[in-house]
Amino acid sequence: MTDATRGPRERPLSPHVQVWRWHVTMATSILHRVSGVGLYVGALMLAGWAVSLARGPEAYAGFKAALGSPIGQVILFLLTAAVFYHLANGIRHLVWDTGRGFGLKSANSSAWFVLFFTAAATLVLWGAYLMGMI
Amino acid sequence: MPSYRTPLSRARGLGAAGHGVGHWIGERVSAVALVPLVLWLVFSFVRLAHADHAEAVAWLRDNPLNPVLLTLLAAVSFWHMHDGMRVVVEDYIEKVSTKATLLILNLFVCVLAGGLAVFSILQVALGGQ
User: Partner of A82 for a Cys bridge, out of A26, A35, A67, B62, CB 3.0 to 4.6 A?
Assistant: First the structure.
């Protein structure tokens, strides 16, 4: 047991991210995490919305004014995109969890579909909002 | 089932902690629940976009489905968020003390914000405000 004195063996490292050619499935993978962290902030804002509603008309008007400011609108726009992205890509992950859709072709096409859906749903919702339909 | 780990491997103790499956399943179950809840939330916020305080309160009071779904959404979201952020912290933070601090902070933030959200929703819905 001379091996025991040497301590743990060096673990194999996965190749560093810079080694690989950038690919759409890599983008959708990291975007899932990024949108999830963004939605973390969004959920805290949702809690803020509920608290302002409970505190009364003044607090609620203040909360709405903050959301209506240019920065608030930009944050809301990004949150809308994050909701649609995390929703669609989350469903993609759930399909993967059943063992389906792992092939190169289907993984690529589902990645593009998720990106297209996010852009379309976000733009339709905000288009309707900006044109006064909502 | 016999254990295939060698005595040396067990002494080094570098194997899996053994509670990953529960976390993994919990993340999926909450994800499945959030699919309809989030779609409902988007639909509701479209309706509430221009609502003032009185209209938003009425929305929560007039139909029991709204406060119930909103409470469920808040509870499941904060659960799912906690699980997700936990993995992010575990992936990127190596230093044990920093990791432990952030994991505890993540838990406390999610429980506190979730508690505030659920309490506020119920307070408005039950008319105590």
Answer: A35
| Main-chain phi, psi angles of B124, to 5 degrees | -70, -45
Residue A113 is assigned to a structural domain of this protein: yes
**pLDDT confidence tier of residue A32, bands split at 50, 70 and 90:** very high
Number of domains in chain A: 1
For the stretch B68-123, pLDDT in tens is 999 999 999 999 999 999 999 999 999 999 999 999 999 999 999 999 999 999 99
Q: What is the pTM of this model?
A: 0.86
Residues in chain A within 8 Å Cβ distance of B49: 129, 134
A4 → closest Cβ in B8, B34, B116: B8
d(CA A47, CA A42): 9
Write the CATH number for A78. Answer: 1.20.1300.10
**Whole-number Å distance between alpha carbons of B124 and A83:** 26
Contact flag B116-A47 (C-beta cutoff 8 Å)? yes
Give the pLDDT score at A1: 47
Per-residue pLDDT at B11? 77
What's the domain range around A45?
Answer: 23-130
Asked whether A45 and A74 are in contact (CB, 8 A), the reply is no
